[in-house]
Fold:
Amino acid sequence: MSDNKIKDKHTEDITSIGSEGEVHGDVVKSVSADMPDIDVLYDLAELYRIFADSTRIRILYVLFENEVCVCDIASVLGMTVSAVSHQLRVLRSAHLVHFKRVGKTCFYSLADDHVKTIIAQGMEHITEG
Structure:
């Protein structure tokens, strides 16, 4: 088969996939009815963007079992207190961690069981097989 015939066949396949005759109205209607608002999907994407940083994941993992102060997180991860504090601000603004102040010390923990579940399921997923 010549190169032109291969290109034409490929273009033909793409065209037929996108043609109006191939749209499955019942599927489109069903999916459209359940589709969240674009702003909600944007917020979901932002949440996963927060999880996309390995430093933040490491901090969340430290907090997975225990409530920990900033100095201890910095020590475990070999980071400066300032760098950890910066990442904790990001995690707090995303409602993934919360803190309580005891005197001058802030102790951080995961905000709720949802965060723990996300981390646990992610670990389970990557360690399978």
Summary: The two ends are 41 Å apart (CA to CA).
